[in-house]
């Protein structure tokens, strides 16, 4: 008998206002004086229902080499923007935000397929070009 996977919960996090932007678009803000530090800010229009849906639609990183029963990071797409979710309590809940950084080619291809299904392929390509460093696999 097949088991139904447990639904993931979105963890808003207490006092995590730094991930909430002021506008209707996701953004990456760099910390002044620290060019390698960034903050992903979600659009104000993103609802708690959107957050729950994104965490449950998110893809796990196939290259996560940790020996655990849950993924440490998940990736999703909303309006062409890549979001990363990080677990806050051993895989039961995740806190997510717009992502800037390195991703493998396979994960980018999987996320692009989601973006195309959502009708945001062009926005996705622009986000990848601006915010993603493409890695080997």
Summarize this structure as a short list of keywords or feature phrases.
five-stranded mixed beta sheet; alpha/beta; two-stranded antiparallel sheet; 137 residues
How would you describe this structure to a colleague?
Helix 2 (105-117) runs antiparallel to helix 3. A hairpin with a 2-residue loop joins strand 5 (73-78) and strand 6. The protein has helices spanning 48-57, 105-117, 121-131; strands spanning 9-10, 27-31, 34-41, 59-60, 73-78, 81-87, 93-98, 101-104, 132-135. The chain is α/β, with parallel strands linked by helices and 137 residues long. The protein is globular, with a radius of gyration of 15 Å. The chain is built from three helices and nine strands, in the order βββαβββββααβ.
Order of helices and strands: EEEHEEEEEHHE
Instruction: Extract low-pLDDT stretches.
Output: none
Helix/strand class: alpha/beta
* Tertiary shape: globular
Largest sheet: 5 strands, mixed
Separation, N- and C-terminal Cα atoms: 34 Å
Total of helices: 3
User: How many individual β-strands?
Assistant: 9
CA radius of gyration is 15 Å
Strand content: 25-35%
Mean of pLDDT: 84
Helix content: 10-25%
Spatial arrangement of strands, main beta sheet: 1-7-6-5-4
Write the layout of secondary structure elements.
Elements: E1 9-10, E2 27-31, E3 34-41, H1 48-57, E4 59-60, E5 73-78, E6 81-87, E7 93-98, E8 101-104, H2 105-117, H3 121-131, E9 132-135
Parallel strand pairs: 1-7, 8-9
Antiparallel strand pairs: 2-3, 4-5, 5-6, 6-7
Helix pairs in contact: 2-3
